[in-house]
Specification:
The chain folds into two domains: about 220 residues, Response regulator (Rossmann fold, 3-Layer(aba) Sandwich), CATH 3.40.50; about 160 residues, Response regulator (Rossmann fold), CATH 3.40.50. Helices cover about 35% and strands about 15% of the residues. A seven-stranded mixed beta sheet has the order 7-6-8-9-10-11-12, with helices on both faces. A five-stranded parallel beta sheet has the order 2-1-3-4-5. The chain is globular.
Length: about 400
Amino acid sequence: MRISLRPTGIGLLGKTALIGLFAGALPAGAMAESGVTDTTIKIGLFGPLTGPAAIHGQPVNNGPISVYMEQNEKGGVHGRKFVFVQEDSACEATKALAAVKKLIHQDKVFMIHGGTCSTAVSATTEEVVKSGVPHLLMAATMDKLTAPVKKNIFTVQMTGSADGRGMARFAASIPGVKKVAIVGRNNDWAETKIQPMRQYFKEKGIEVVARETLEANASDATAQALKLKKVDPDVIILVNYPTESATLLRDAWKYGLRSKSKDSPAVIVSTPDLLDLVERVGNKEVLQDLYGITVIAGPFGSPEMKKWEGIRYKHFPNDIKKSVAYQGVAGATVVIEALKRVGRDVTREKFLAAMEGTKGLKDHGAACSISFSASSHQGCNDPTVWTLTPDGKVVNLGPVWRDLSKN
């Protein structure tokens, strides 16, 4: 048999590439389902492997891939080892759809574990549902991706509405907060978070004094910073990606909206990687009263993440050392546990039933207990919040504010 190896999107190097190569040469003798052989289960991954959002691509994919590879070293699941195919979405709807179509129809994967950039992933939903191929979302957060329930789509990422409520709950728990300002993109991804946020503030009697727009990759936020300075909020909530969040923080400091003053507004961001954000801003002074929401169990280097960091750098020793790269780890543990319960006779139908049967799963690198049911495929909606100490250490606060000086 002649085997040709050609690139599909951006492939993995080293051990993973060899695994995929040999999988292509295996006989399909006892195939129970598309993407399944006697010895392998093929998983498709996609994400922004190139472009401005690439930090959410290969580094995020490598998290679950390392967990699958670790399971392979234990003999796989019921004698089958995981093999992988990756495709690039570049955080664009058309490319995401093309990537998913290729994984389903050409690569014939058993399931997809992937998808970052909610708007891009949303463009793939119809194709995935029609195909029946199981899809566990990687880091996309829009509620409509999994609600109403789509039989073959699941997520263990925090949904947009949970993200919004979590940020609002934390803001409301800060002593003395009466006025908040919201800055975010003008799209469905942002509004999914902002609408429940507004409702929460209304219930708590907290006034939303501004809703400013800052679009993708914005390099200047002068107008937004000056408008926010006029309304003088107690808290600013940024519903943006790190690039534009850094722009707002930089200009907020430049124009005196944020300063060393104790009356300077706190900032809550929709990202856990605060050190990365400070690097982007280029000013360590911005770390005061800066908070990031996440479902990751703990900051990089924390006891909660020691196991998962060990697995990642065992298989990808030169990978980036940033918390954002751990968003997909919990999902891989869910997939492995579901397949264990399915047994040797693997079919998609049985796998989907096992996914819905997941109850109270812990020890997976997320801050929540993961459960699914027939009526909910959103498995992890209990966020936590991190902050930075004056010396630059990341600390996990929990869901509400607390005074670190009293610890």
